[in-house]
């Protein structure tokens, strides 16, 4: 843990909607040299919509240079389908059932030893940009960062990614000896899929069809839980428009990340760097009758990209074994030689040299009472989920999917597989028991405030 003798804070406004907090820490001095670490969490980016994953549109050519020298885990899973639990796992190496930030407003207490704190105490200069208002100093996510730039506006009024990538590019190009840990979490792939006017034609040669309007009409009723299923009420043009807007946002955001990668390369800071690109969750686009994220545990909201460019890696590797974004922190610490045996995840470094980890089950959790309370497990290609209740009014439900035969989770098999359901139920209960002693976090939002914040778009 860092010893913070002077714990903040020269705060100043950078401009509309963004505030930079500089934390003056009296702690370990910076190292003189070492690999830069760049951790990029592209909020709401589902794995299968990247062109490198075989998507038919050129959604992510800006990432080609990074892809060519990364280990790309094509079967990577987030532990939870929404921002706070999942991002906190990326930033701590702990499963949501361990860090316990599971409900809107749950905060990260100072006794957590975060990735940024560990890296900072080892001598890295630590800088974060988060345009998601749920990953912010007020919820404790600035622990360990020398500088944290946050969105001061609404969750849906986020600044564009280019603003944070330009700030990161400026940092990369500035002369400094100490290694840097840069954390970037842009929001353009999150609804309402905002894209600057100048970039709206970049994917399709024309702007996306504007027929779909985020949070309007049926969308709003879905989010209020008053519509059972929108699938039959949404026509093909509506779905096409939604996909076009989402994909155009991916193109814009990945182009910006590509500019950062290019700048690192030109500054001679890419080869040695550890670069990790991932997401906190995906996005449901009516595959199961709903929309957005945080409403189910289906694969479209849990499967995310996870690319790791290790220092001096020159060739690409594609790994199909299931891994978790809980593995991000252990991987970074392993590469930097920072020992820690207290984490839930595992270092992915063995894959770089042709090794593999012994497969183990992945546990999923969502605990957003107004949307869904459910837990699930993935083991040996089978996915089991147990829903306590959800926004569609369903209660006490078990579901089973064979991902080998049905990767989209469209054929529910629990009725014909009672023995497998029983075994998966037992496995899930055993895994959940490991987290029983985790303490409850402090919730920053009094219960009455939830409705107001949600209505204003401050909550996802
Ligand atoms: Zn998110």
Shape: globular
CATH class: Alpha Beta
Fourth-tier CATH superfamily name: Alkaline Phosphatase, subunit A
Structural class: alpha/beta
Key features of this structure:
460 residues, alpha/beta, Alkaline Phosphatase, subunit A, 11-stranded mixed sheet, 4-stranded antiparallel sheet, 11 helices, 17 strands, disordered N terminus, binds zinc ion
Report on the structure:
This protein is of the alpha/beta class. The protein has a single domain (10-360), classed as Alkaline Phosphatase, subunit A (3-Layer(aba) Sandwich), CATH 3.40.720. It contains eleven helices and 17 strands. It has helices at residues 64-67, 83-92, 96-99, 115-121, 161-173, 218-223, 236-266, 299-302, 328-336, 418-433, 447-455, and strands at 10-15, 18-22, 37-41, 71-77, 125-130, 147-151, 180-185, 274-278, 284-285, 291-292, 303-309, 317-319, 323-324, 362-368, 372-379, 382-390, 395-402. Strands 1, 2, 3, 4, 5, 6, 7, 8, 11, 12 and 13 form an eleven-stranded mixed beta sheet that branches. The radius of gyration is 21 Å and the shape is globular. Zinc ion (ZN) binds next to loops.
Which helices and strands, and how do they pair?
Elements: E1 10-15, E2 18-22, E3 37-41, H1 64-67, E4 71-77, H2 83-92, H3 96-99, H4 115-121, E5 125-130, E6 147-151, H5 161-173, E7 180-185, H6 218-223, H7 236-266, E8 274-278, E9 284-285, E10 291-292, H8 299-302, E11 303-309, E12 317-319, E13 323-324, H9 328-336, E14 362-368, E15 372-379, E16 382-390, E17 395-402, H10 418-433, H11 447-455
Parallel strand pairs: 3-7, 3-8, 4-12, 4-13, 5-6, 5-7
Antiparallel strand pairs: 1-2, 2-6, 4-11, 8-11, 9-10, 14-15, 15-16, 16-17
The protein binds zinc ion.
